[in-house]
Amino acid sequence: MPKKTRCIALSLILISLWWVAAPQALCAEDLGGTAAPNIELIVSAGPSFARTALPSMDPGLQGGLGGCFGAAIRSTSFSASPKLAGVGTVELSAFSFSQSAVTSDGQLYRAWCGLGVELLGGLILGPVALPLAGVPTEISLQAGAGLRASEYTGTGLVSAYPAVLARLAFSFAGAQGQTWGLALPFEYARKAGATVLIFGISGIWRIK
Amino acid sequence: MMAQTKGRVVVKTLRFVVSAALVALAASCSTTKISAAHYYLCIGIADYKYASALTYPAEDAKSMAELLSSGGWEIPPTAATVPACADGLLLNDEATKTGIGQAIQTCFAGAEADSTIFVYFSGHGIYDDSTGSSCMAPYDFNWGTSDGISPAELYGWFASLPTKNIIFISDSCFSGNFVYCTDSGDTIPPSYTDASGNTIFTLPLYVLSNFGSLLAKNAAADGEPAPVAISAAGAEEYAYDGDESQKHGVFTYYLLQAAESGDSNGDGFVTCTEAYTYVAACIDTYWNNKYSVFYPHISGGMRDLVLFM
Predict the structure, then answer these.
(1) Closest alpha carbon within chain B to A162
(2) Tens digits of residue pLDDT in A161-201
(3) 3-class DSSP assignment, residue B30
(4) Rounded-to-integer distance, Cα B165 and Cα A124, Å
(5) pLDDT reading at B94 higher than 80
(6) Predicted interface score ipTM higher than 0.95
(7) Which of A99, A196, A208, B253 minimizes the number of CB atoms within 10 Å of its CB?
(8) Do A56 and B206 touch (CB under 8 A)?
(9) Which of B104, B139, B120, B115 is nearest to B64 (CA)?
(10) Model's pTM, two decimal places?
(11) In this structure, what is the dihedral angle of CA atoms A185, A61, A63, A107, given to the nearest 10 degrees?
(12) Class of residue B74 by CB neighbours under 10 A (exposed 0-12, middle 13-18, buried 19+)
């Protein structure tokens, strides 16, 4: 699919999501959002998959775990609606992926692990009434970039590479400013000539 | 009521995350049967024409060939055309520079494109202080500048082979120069000391001080498959013959053990990286505490190959 078509398709999907979610946001129960900027601490962790592909090899799936710790600042000052906030996040992350399964000719992708720093920005919508969640839910969509330092597990070989990140998160308000939720992180990187797509499911805990 | 609902949501969320973790674990543990052919050539030189003799290299090569043969590896398809290595072995006076070059280029000429080739070398390695370069010493090495086999020559021979799945392991002094890390940095220095271990601080410190060059290396990497190379020692280090109880080179002694004990994830295969990790840990734990220190190296890249099946 041409790049231009992909961009148009993605834009249409995002506009559709906004068109569907916004009316629900306006009639959902208010959980106490504030117009003043506030800072939250964020901790998240969960399983991830890396789909790794070298030009000369079939793609391989590498199971792993990832987690991050960071801070987010959110503000509704730019928005007419208190249900819509802008958010910026800075995080430190850690990740580890096992080796892929061995192919029939005896090749595989190496296990790797590492650390990263990332900056994300985006929007938080909500709380909205999502049909399946059962409780008022905040939806956030963030995108950004990060720098990674990784090591092939068990060796002394290290590399560094940039990554493009996106994260869709659903969170549910808890007691005393805490928020629990679920995030679907996505990452794209070029690592040692391989295309690496990482997707996962993380549990998120936030506190104001 | 609201609190109960929220509690259920949290529990459901946690269940979902745990289930996904189990799926991830299962996906990473799946195994495959290897159907492609695997060919080996083991070179061991204990008795040299001009250089001093070593104790165990010929035994190293024989034991390695025996282990590989019992594990599904085969003699190269056109080995019979080079009588000296018809059994997949080149020992002592058979392993001249011409003989080694001919064996690698001719014996593997009939290998299939998806097959894996393994070349093992045990013998002298020579280091040139003035240039920082090193070479493998064949049987007829006589200290001349072109008597040895340089990394460029060896990799040139490898480039002519019909498959890109190539493993090269060298149990020789200064063999670290045969290990290329074009897309990554090696935190293990060419001359290892007890203080330069791979600690929790190694990665961040090394990366912080070399971040620009690591990014540049990553950007330049094209992902083309390169041989997976493992060296017994760094580019500025000696490798050692083992003691009476080992009866092999120290590195090879633990490499042979790795076939049995190196499968760290229990998937039934010992990959080059697993073997390397096992051998390096054994040398550091059992040898470096008592004798002269050295540390193996392995080449970079996302790709790995199965060594012991």
Answers:
(1) B215
(2) 999 999 999 988 877 878 889 999 999 999 999 999 999 99
(3) coil
(4) 49
(5) yes
(6) no
(7) A208
(8) no
(9) B120
(10) 0.84
(11) -140
(12) middle
